[in-house]
């Protein structure tokens, strides 16, 4: 069975009048269908650049990104992208915001309207359809942003630190909430984060990048006992400290060489 996502020897540099700045070097990994992968690394190692390459927003200078075995530019796959901020429009209602992508793609029909309403109810936003974004908490806004993304039925979800704009307590709750939603929907997801606890508690595997130009230093499979079935519970699992120390030590090697 082909992986849902593959990065094969991907390299990328930024170019300016001052010269070339290598961002990523020979990145290779794959993500299986339904798998949740987290990517961590030192600041400036190219994590967000990697997401831009995986989404097709940037083209690798070397190597290939494939979805279902097909180069991303040829695949026609639907890719959902959640950014650090929710980017909800204040002049639209919550329903108007979650329906925006469907409207743009001219896919807002009776079936998609029913799906939206079901997701709003299931994810704690039932009754807030006519509210404005400023009337919602940060966590509710992020759930609205997720519904807007899931409404387009993406083959792949890319998450660029989607909880970083929230205060710590809200961040824990929203991470637990949204990660659980993504797993229940069976979506394939790649999360970029600076928070090691977040990376470990959400992921099936954690990919550790080196300092710039980023390359894959290590990939750690993450397995918890069945009773620890959410990110919040996993932070209290007996396995958690061992995983944290493994990732921290690998990041420490990268920092020492920076």
How would you describe this protein?
The chain has 258 residues and is α/β, with parallel strands linked by helices. The chain has ten helices and ten strands. The strands form two sheets. Strands 6-7-8-3-9-10 form a six-stranded mixed beta sheet, with helices on both faces. Strands 2-1-4-5 form a four-stranded antiparallel beta sheet. β7, α7 and β8 (188-192) form a beta-alpha-beta unit. The model is unreliable at 254-258 (pLDDT under 50).
Arithmetic mean pLDDT: 89
Helix content: 25-40%
Note the beta-strand portion. Answer: 15-25%
Pairing-aware structural class of the strands and helices?
alpha/beta
Order of helical and strand elements = EEEHEEHEHHHHEHEHEEHH
Question: How are the SSEs ordered, and which strands pair?
Answer:
Elements: E1 5-16, E2 19-31, E3 36-40, H1 47-55, E4 62-67, E5 70-71, H2 72-75, E6 79-82, H3 94-98, H4 100-104, H5 110-122, H6 138-150, E7 156-160, H7 168-185, E8 188-192, H8 196-202, E9 205-209, E10 216-221, H9 231-234, H10 240-256
Parallel strand pairs: 3-8, 3-9, 6-7, 7-8
Antiparallel strand pairs: 1-2, 1-4, 4-5, 9-10
Helix pairs in contact: 6-7, 8-10
Care to give the gist of this entry?
Helices cover 37% and strands 24% of the residues. The protein has helices at residues 47-55, 72-75, 94-98, 100-104, 110-122, 138-150, 168-185, 196-202, 231-234, 240-256; strands at residues 5-16, 19-31, 36-40, 62-67, 70-71, 79-82, 156-160, 188-192, 205-209, 216-221.
Key features of this structure:
258 residues; alpha/beta; six-stranded mixed beta sheet; four-stranded antiparallel beta sheet; 10 helices; 37% helix
């Amino acid at each position: 069975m082909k992986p849902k996502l593959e990065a094969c020897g991907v390299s990328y540099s930024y170019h300016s009048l001052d010269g070339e700045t290598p961002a990523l070097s020979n990145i290779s990994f794959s993500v299986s269908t339904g798998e949740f992968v987290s990517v961590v690394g030192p600041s400036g190692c190219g994590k967000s650049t990697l997401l831009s390459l995986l989404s097709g927003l940037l083209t690798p200078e070397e190597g290939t990104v494939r979805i279902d075995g097909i180069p991303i530019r040829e695949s026609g796959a639907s890719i959902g992208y959640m950014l650090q901020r929710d980017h909800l429009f204040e002049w639209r209602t919550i329903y108007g915001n979650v329906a925006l992508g469907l409207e743009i793609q001219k896919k807002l029909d009776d079936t998609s309207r029913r799906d939206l309403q079901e997701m709003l109810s299931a994810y704690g936003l039932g009754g807030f359809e006519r509210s404005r974004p400023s009337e919602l908490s940060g966590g509710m806004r992020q759930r609205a942003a997720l519904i807007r993304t899931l409404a387009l039925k993406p083959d792949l979800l890319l998450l660029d630190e989607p909880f970083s704009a929230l205060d710590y307590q809200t961040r824990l709750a929203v991470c637990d909430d949204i990660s659980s939603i993504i797993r229940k929907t069976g979506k394939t997801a790649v999360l970029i984060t600076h928070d090691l606890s977040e990376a470990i508690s959400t992921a099936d595997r954690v990919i550790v990048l080196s300092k710039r130009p980023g390359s894959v230093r290590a990939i750690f499979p993450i397995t918890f006992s069945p009773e620890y079935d959410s990110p919040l519970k996993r932070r209290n699992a007996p396995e958690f400290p061992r995983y944290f120390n493994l990732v921290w030590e690998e990041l420490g090697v990268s920092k020492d060489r920076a």
